[in-house]
Design brief:
49% of the residues lie in helices and 15% in strands. By secondary structure, it is α/β, with parallel strands linked by helices. The protein has two domains: 201 residues, 2-enoyl-CoA Hydratase, Chain A, domain 1; 53 residues. It has a six-stranded mixed beta sheet, sandwiched between helices. A three-stranded mixed beta sheet has the order 5-7-8. Strand 2, helix 1 and strand 3 form a beta-alpha-beta unit. Helix 1 runs parallel beside helix 3 and helix 9 packs antiparallel against helix 10.
């Protein structure tokens, strides 16, 4: 399934979402955003898609926002200054949050350039695997702007204020190995093995019980910024759902068999 800017399909348990503007280095415009929203809405409801893979076609993951799109939404439309832009940012926030809150593991496969809004999109994934030659960053400050679609929020929560300030306030693009040191990437792999290593990771997730995966993700995300005792209450609630699930005995038996093989 696809629109012109986004392609998605389900095969062998994996829902693959591809940014498909290679001639523009997958710069993000209105068509991309609406395509992402539709893709993740459909895949979240599709039981055949147990893991979602997010990737870019061509030479880059994403060059960030399409500047023609930015000029369009930043243009005065007769209302008070900035209203149109704030409305568009709110829409982008809702799409990014929708991706982040999908109750399935989302893996971003990153190659080439991953900057600005493209970097913010990658941060909505649960896992990020990057090629060694990939470069990542949020260069908005160079244009007199800030990353406004999760850059100051997700970066600070995920990497801490020290790294967030270096990324945002210098506007530099960093090599993948440096971004790994910041704690923002799960793996950095040789370019030639990016497809292979990403597939290995996805296959590992496919071997895990999907209900437990989705609820583990929820428990972790809900607990960010929450006090310890409240977070532990969420753990207990989630565990009660899992252990009383209809297929839990079969899941437990299968899990024990897998563990015994590793001994």
């Amino acid at each position: 399934m696809a629109n012109d800017a986004i392609k998605w399909e389900v095969k062998d348990g994996v829902g693959t979402v591809t940014l498909n503007r290679p001639e523009k280095r997958n710069a993000i415009n209105d068509e991309v955003l609406h395509g992402l929203s539709k893709a993740f809405s459909e895949l979240s409801l599709n039981p055949e898609a147990r893991v979602i893979l997010l990737q870019g076609a061509g030479q880059a993951f994403s060059a960030g926002i399409d500047f023609n799109f930015l000029a369009q939404v930043g243009r005065d439309d007769g209302r008070a200054p900035g209203i149109r832009l704030r409305e568009e940012i709110d829409l982008i926030h809702s799409i990014m949050n929708r991706i982040e809150q999908t109750e399935k593991p989302v893996v971003a496969k990153i190659h080439g350039f991953c900057g600005g809004l493209g970097m913010e999109l990658a941060l909505t994934a649960d896992f990020r695997i990057a090629a060694e030659s990939a470069t990542l960053g949020v260069p908005e400050i160079i244009l007199g702007l800030i990353p406004d679609c999760g850059g100051t929020t997700r970066l600070t929560r995920m990497a801490g204020p020290v790294w967030a300030k270096e990324l945002i306030m210098t506007g530099d693009m960093f090599p993948a190995k440096k971004v790994y040191e910041m704690g923002l990437l799960n793996q950095v792999v040789p370019d030639a093995r990016l497809e292979e290593k990403t597939r290995e990771f996805v296959d590992k997730l496919l071997q895990r019980p999907p209900l437990a995966l989705g609820l583990a993700k929820k428990a972790i995300d809900w607990g960010v910024g929450m006090d310890k005792n409240s977070h532990m209450e969420i753990e207990a609630y989630v565990q009660s759902l899992l252990i009383t699930a209809k297929d839990f005995p079969q899941t437990l038996q299968k899990g024990f068999a897998q563990l015994l093989k590793k001994k």
